[in-house]
Amino acid sequence: MNEFDVFYVFRHGDPLLVAVFLLLLVMSLATWAIAASKLFTLLGVRRDDRATLAAFDVSQTAPDFRDALRRQRGPLAAIGQEAFAAFADYRGVRDGSDKAEQRLDDHVVRRIRQAMDRQLLRMQAGNIILASVGALAPFVGLLGTVWGIHGALIDISQEAAVSMDLVAGPLGEALVATAAGLAAAIPAVAFFNIFNRSQRLLHQDFEAFAHDVHALLMHSDLTPGNARAARDRRTDPHALPENGLHQGD
Question: What one-character-per-residue DSSP string does 35-100 give?
């Protein structure tokens, strides 16, 4: 063999060496597919989040922003919608006391945190595959190289006369496995670092936006949950509390 043939291993390699190259090919394809998908997702998220922040900036009151959120998409919009839902679903009594305000605050913060966690998990999809390819691909390639050299040396030992062409061909093809492993690992590591940094920046945006929405809600005139029903019960002592249970302040 006088020239390099990239398909030599598939024609003449043993099953293990062929399996190594196929595995590296699958790893490389998965890396580029995940990277392309996450890139388009990230661009869409950035666009949607800018629109949500713009809606927040132009909203004068909490009801204005609540209405604007219904037309928005993306992680920030989902976090904002969950915050308003938590405020509306609150089943406690808001009577102006510090204890009541703290209970409402804890409820809203908990729901906002849960929404943030869901959005971060969605943005982190695929990271484990990129990290695994970056960590394992070089060793898979090295396995192929060691196995290929082992087989080549056995074949050479069975030849009566050994020439440089006889040695260089099989050994060169075996060494390609290491290069293939690096070719799969380097992009995976690079993409993992890029997307990991982007997700850290998104987390900072989530924290800042969540703080602003929380402050907007807690200082708004919106009535949370069943607070209006609680006031009606205080006005009408004969009205039964929700679920037929008496509530104390």
Answer: HHHHHHHHHHHHHHHHHHHHHHHH--SHHHHHHHHTT--SHHHHHHHHHHHHHHH--S---S-HHH
